[in-house]
Amino acid sequence: MTQEIAVLSAQPDMALESPAVRKVFVKTYGCQMNVYDSDRMTDALAKDGYVSTDVMEDADLVLLNTCHIREKAAEKVYSALGRLRDLKKKKAGEGREMMIGVAGCVAQAEGDEILRRAPAVDLVIGPQTYHRLPEALQRVKRGERVLETDYAIEDKFEHLPAPDKAKTRARGVTAFLTVQEGCDKFCTFCVVPYTRGSEVSRPVAQIVAEAQKLVDAGVREITLLGQNVNAWHGVGADGEKWGLGELLHRLTRIEGLARLRYTTSHPRDMDDSLIDAHRDLPQLMPYLHLPIQSGSNRILKAMNRRHTTAEYIALIARIKAARPDLALSGDFIVGFPGETDEDFEDTLRLVETVGYAQAFSFKYSTRPGTPGADLGDQVPEDVKAKRLERLQALLLKQQNEFAQQCIGKTIDLLLEKPGRMPGQLIGRSPWLQSVNVDANASQIGDIVSVRITGAGPNSLFAEVVS
Ligand code: 5AD
Ligand code: SF4
Fold it and tell me: Which helix (H) or strand (E) holds 464?
């Protein structure tokens, strides 16, 4: 599964404004995959003269790229649609048209329901059909309300435009690149296999070409994305079967590509070549998001994770033997149906044993249509809340301890963007922490050697080592 984030991905374009220019505002919910998809949709719309705006009121088209992973995420969409309905009405009163589109996993899972509950919505489009967006908008213009959620037989990636140079540059020196989509694991709590469909890997040549384009536009760090990224497989130029390890090797041959990451992985798909890549490729950052979800073997079984805690711990030991400075991140769910106090204590024990530099934890949310929804023995909300509080306190303690251990270390920092203070830049440590440092804006994109001098709640402080 991909990590949870909530971002506003609308980015103002550099294009000159003219009355003929149409504006799109994209709001992105959920995971990095959605961030990537939002950028690709924006690129696809550019062909029809759309530029991005970060002012919703100015938009001719508002697209919500939605997340269905938990109930709360889906509900957010309906409340946003309520506000958009009012805005659309207000604009219509002023003689200005505004189209509303819903994309992403809520669109895929609840397309009909959205059209029924939200009459202001003009377009519902699922994640596999984004390349049909321009055509779908034409249909809206002709007066249709469009529902486009059939799994497209054609490969969406072949039809979606690759990132454009100027836009990529404006988006920064780090980039996401989706290499795999969908999931065949069917964890019993998870909607992804239903919303994103079964596993599909993009071909090597397509990935390499896209990575090269990103690097040509100034990108220094690429994060390979997939719901189950380490299930990626393909055939190399040598005609051999490749896994993610081989793909990473190939990508390190791109000159100027300084850093690689990948997310999110399933423990069962960490094969030898991927573990060896952590040992052999200095460009591969020593940070791994490897969710286990629970520390109880009984619950892991009920979740259909198909591994035990002992297997997970042994796997971590092998990866750390390959790359001793590797830091771990994970996801946890508390209150899966049938989870007892003892099961939960097992989760706390596992966290103590493994030690996480960062982790995401959630209360189990029943997702209609998943096997978990039909299980009896649902855990009461207040019990889930108490468990989550205890788990998050432990994870936060570990995160702070990890940050404290960084103080005094000299590390490589990729300078990404201006900081809050003048003369300050923000960069990323190899372990994905934000680091504030005094540096010149002309250095954005450089990798500099810095010494960590302090740790705040969400970021580190450092000084450049001359
Ligand atoms: N309830 C709570 N958390 C969930 N996740 C996935 N499905 C659910 C659910 N039904 C969490 C998992 C996953 C992360 C992205 O979201 O921990 O790894
Ligand atoms: Fe969901 Fe499990 Fe697949 Fe991750 S591995 S996307 S949690 S079904």
Answer: strand 459-464
CB 326 within 8 A of CB 320: yes
What pTM, to 2 d.p., does this model score?
0.93
Assign residue 56 the CATH number of its domain.
3.40.50.12160
User: Residue 12: which residues within 8 A CB-CB, separation 6 or more?
Assistant: 51, 52, 53, 54
Query: What's the CA-to-centroid distance between 191 and ligand 2, angstroms?
Result: 8
Question: Which atom of ligand 1 is nearest to 367's Cα?
Answer: 10
Per-residue pLDDT, averaged over 32-61, amounts to 93
In a domain, 155, yes or no: no
The angle at the Cα of 269, spanning 266 to 275, to the nearest 5 degrees, equals 105
Model confidence at 101, pLDDT cuts 50, 70, 90, reads very high
Residue 438 to residue 413: CA distance in whole angstroms: 12
> How far is it, in rounded angstroms, from Cα 385 to Cα 362?
9
Q: What is the pLDDT of residue 10?
A: 41
For residues 113 and 6, membership in a common domain is answered with yes
Centroid of ligand 2 to alpha carbon of 263 (angstroms): 12
